[in-house]
Amino acid sequence: MPKSLKAKLREGKPLLGTLVSLPSPEIAEVLCDAGFDWLFIDMEHGLLGYADTQRIIQTAGAICPCLVRVPANDPSSISKALDTGAAGLIFPHINGAEEARAAVRAAKYPPQGTRSVGLARAQGYGAFLKESFERDNQEAVLVAQAEHIDAAVGIENIISVAGLDAVFIGPYDLSASLHKPGQFEDEDVKLSIKKIRDACALAHLPTGIMARNLDAARRFLHEGYRLISVSSDTLLLGDTARQILSSLKFL
After folding, report:
1. Residue 204 known to be catalytic
2. Could you read off the pLDDT of 201-217 as tens digits, one per residue?
3. Residues spanned by the domain of 243
């Protein structure tokens, strides 16, 4: 039986993924076949509905675990995303401990939490309901996304919340919250990111981050990040197309 994503996270080895924003199981399948360790399924900013997300997971999830970034940290969004059979969730905009606690509670079945019980894909459409209670409570990977200066300031409180398996840094929104959108080399932005990373390292909690390109991903690997999302479906397509054209146009 293959190791779960949670088991791989605990081993401490780097896990490389990429972001999926387009409602195409075929694109997810191509990325999965390329050898990524996991896929970041983006329901917050991508064009994905729950049916799209489930079809992507049906196609790729058995080989390449899928973490779904929910559109909002509310109980309905969280339970529906888990019901697709996702390996776990990324909770966006976690700025404090109470938000983290509420998200974890919504993702856990009673008695550990308040997740609503449904008969969907994750429960074998009702055939494996009892088994899903224990499996999902134990194996679903729950990730808090720290993407605001408030999260950096209060990171010690966030990572004290029981049930979190990792923290994922969102550098775009974090830099924007400092009124320096996209200025990743700015000293304030770098210090805020480092504060989150260092606090997580001290607590032995895996840290992830979004890497725009290969150079950034190499740097993040060297700095000890363990859950790295490199580029995205749209960026990979666009960047490769531009590289081909820039190489051939003037021959």
Report:
1. no
2. 999 999 999 999 999 99
3. 5-248
